[in-house]
Amino acid sequence: MQPLRISAVSYLNTFPFVFGLKESGILHNFTLELDVPSVCADKFKRGLVDIALVPVGVLPELSAFHYLSDFCIGATGEVKTVLLLSKVPLEKISRVSLDFDSRTSVQLVKVLAEKYWQIEPEWVNLEQGDFSGMQELESVVAIGDKTFGMRHKFPYVYDLAEAWIHQTGLPFVFAVWVSGEILSDDQIQQFSDSLSFGISHKSECLEYFRDRLPFGEDSLKYLEENISYHFDDDKRRGLDLFLRYIR
Fold first, then answer.
1. d(CA 18, CA 197)
2. What is the tens place of the pLDDT at every residue in 1-35?
3. φ/ψ bin of 111: left (φ > 0), alpha (ψ from -120 to 50), beta (otherwise)
4. What mean pLDDT is reported for the chain?
5. What is the dihedral of CA 33, 191, 65, 173, to 10 degrees?
6. Measured between alpha carbons, how far is 164 from 196 in angstroms, rounded to an integer?
7. Which of 71, 136, 156, 244 matches a 20 to 30 Å C-alpha distance to 7?
C-alpha cells in the first residue's frame, strides 16, 4: 500500500497536530509535508496529497472531498494570529493589503467589510513573503506566526475571529482536515487518534518544537486559550454561514 501523503500547515497553531502525527506512533505508513495554508490547498486541489489541512475558503472550489476528523483549526474568541492591522480607524480604512498565505482570511475580512462594517476599501494582493514595506501600508491583513511581531507596529488592531464572533454569535473555523478519497475505517481512526494525542499533549509538543516558538513562554497559553481544535456543532454552523457568504 502506498503511504498516505499529508500536507499540514507549518504554524504554531498546528504544532499539536504535527506532533501527534509524528510522535504518537499511531498512524503508520505516511509522509508529512508542512506548508503555508494556500500551498496546502493547492497541493490538495492538484492531487499531490491524499490528506490536507485546508483553509475553509477553498472548500467551494473542490470537486470532491471528505471531512476526515472531528478536529479543525478554529476560534471561539480572540485568535491573535489573524489580524487586520491599520494606521487608521476601521471606518476610515480605504486600502487593505492582503496576505498571500491564506485566502480564507482574505475572504473573511471582505465578508466583514461588506456585511457588517459597511466599508468599501481597495483590496491589494501582496506577493508571497512581501512584507518588506509593511510600514508604508495603510492597512494589512496578516496571518500566522509573523503577526506576533507585527501587531505592535500599528495603532489599530482588529482580530478577525473576534470580529466574526461578535457579529454572528458563532465560532469561526479557519481550516479543516479533508481527504480526496474515502479512507478505510482503520486509517480514519488512526489519523484521528494521532491528532487527539497531539491535542492532549500540548506541553510535550511545545518542548518538541522549542526552537520554533514565536510566542516564547506564552505559546502554551495561545494554544489553550486562542485555538479551539474540536470541530463541534457550533463550529459547523459557523462554517456553514461563512460558506454561504463566500459562495
1. 10
2. 689 999 998 889 999 999 999 999 999 999 999 98
3. alpha
4. 92
5. -80
6. 27
7. 244
Which of 234, 240, 241 shows the shortest CA–CA distance to 115? 241
Least confident of 83-92, 146-155, 223-232: 146-155
Note the pTM of the prediction, 2 decimals. 0.93
Residue 60 CA to residue 57 CA, distance in Å, equals 7
Average pLDDT over every residue of 60-71: 92
